[in-house]
Specification:
With 349 residues, the chain is α/β, with parallel strands linked by helices. The chain has a single domain, classed as Divalent-metal-dependent TIM barrel enzymes (TIM Barrel). The strands form two sheets. Strands 3-2-1-10-7-6-5-4 form an eight-stranded parallel sheet. The radius of gyration is 22 Å and the shape is globular. 40% of the residues are buried.
């Protein structure tokens, strides 16, 4: 019997290299298939792995693209649109995000470019048969995360109202095309936990296209209930990154991790099985809620090598995929429905 969830998939971005065998879609596909991966999540911003303009405009290009991967035993899962971060960010990040978009774009021009990039991803998703577009929300309020100095009245509401306004044209376009926008719950963005996701939902009037790309590592680093979240947002989870995390506090470091580099932080991303996520429980809960999308490996580990992580993670994911029970375990005791017998048992005359 087939498993309900699909996998193993792999997100190309962090595994991509300048040289073979991970330097273009053909080489990467051969490498990934050889390790046992069955699906690829594409970086929508990297022309080595997909031409977004062609994918948005040409069904023929997409058919040929998918056909070449199918010959290797692979499917296109979806396209992660990092460009979503550019829809909203505080001016403090101007220089840090300069490499994320074409040079010289600011203000309305940058917003228009980012929205257009997301719409191209939606068009390409239609051509490729993908269900949605995973992305980051961006954010205007993140630099003011900690409420000191005291927040001016209404500033949080203003930030989320504006964030929703900027995303609405993309969300409407996604809904018109039968796709979802799957926001990763991600620090550095204004959607970084359940409460902020709820605020965004409120300001988008519970838009049908507002969904979630679930990544448990971000929950570990924040001290969030990553298992309860699955049940609470069951109807909105449309994508899953399989990435581990660990949080080890000390007298010197807590959740803010003392301004240290990734390898020295109290909270770190890890390769699956090296951190604190209970993946057996996580996969079980995802199966219970009816999630039937892909389980996609993402690697951001400052300790374990990327290639070794990829080799270990394909069988790890495969082993955690769960086949849904075909019948109840106590069916052998079922005596069938009998209204008269039920009344006798209950003492009803």
């Amino acid at each position: 019997m087939a498993t309900q969830m699909k996998g193993p998939g792999i997100f190309i971005a962090q595994f991509a290299t300048a040289d073979a065998p991970r330097n273009n879609i053909d080489n990467f596909g051969t490498w990934a298939a050889g390790l046992g991966y069955k699906g690829l999540q594409l970086p929508a911003w990297d022309p080595r792995f997909i031409d977004l303009d062609k994918a948005a405009e040409s069904k023929t290009y997409c058919d040929e693209y998918a056909g070449k991967l199918k010959a290797k035993g692979l499917e296109v899962i979806d396209m992660f649109a990092l460009q979503g971060q550019m829809i909203a960010f505080h001016p403090a990040f101007d220089e840090l995000f300069a490499g994320f978009h074409p040079a010289g774009l600011k203000g309305a021009a940058l917003l228009s470019w980012a929205q257009d990039q997301l719409k191209k991803c939606i068009k390409a998703s239609v051509h490729l048969g993908c269900k949605g577009v995973p992305t980051l929300s961006g954010g205007l309020y993140w630099p003011f995360l900690y409420p000191w100095p005291q927040r001016p009245a209404g500033i949080v509401e203003t930030a989320y109202k504006e964030l929703a306004k900027r995303w609405m044209p993309v969300l409407d376009f996604a809904k018109e095309n039968g796709k979802t926008i799957n926001y990763e719950i991600h620090p550095g963005c204004d959607i970084f936990d359940g409460a902020t996701f709820d605020m965004f939902l409120d300001y988008t009037h519970n838009h049908d296209a507002v969904c979630i790309n679930y990544d448990p590592s971000h929950f570990i680093l924040q001290g969030l209930d990553l298992y309860g979240f699955i049940r609470m947002y069951a109807d909105r989870i449309k994508g899953v990154h399989v990435k581990d995390g660990e949080f080890v506090s000390s007298p010197k470091q807590g959740v803010y991790s003392g301004m240290q580099s990734w390898g020295k932080r109290a909270g770190r991303f890890r390769t699956v099985g090296d951190g604190q996520v209970d993946f057996t429980r996580m996969f079980g809960l995802l199966t219970e809620i009816g999630y039937d999308g892909w389980a996609v490996l993402e690697w951001e580990d400052p300790v374990r090598d990327a290639e070794e992580a990829a080799k270990r993670s394909a069988p790890f994911i495969q082993d955690h995929l769960m086949t849904v029970a075909a019948y109840a375990f106590d069916n052998f005791l079922d005596s069938g429905a009998d209204e008269a017998a039920n009344k006798r048992i209950l003492g009803i005359s």
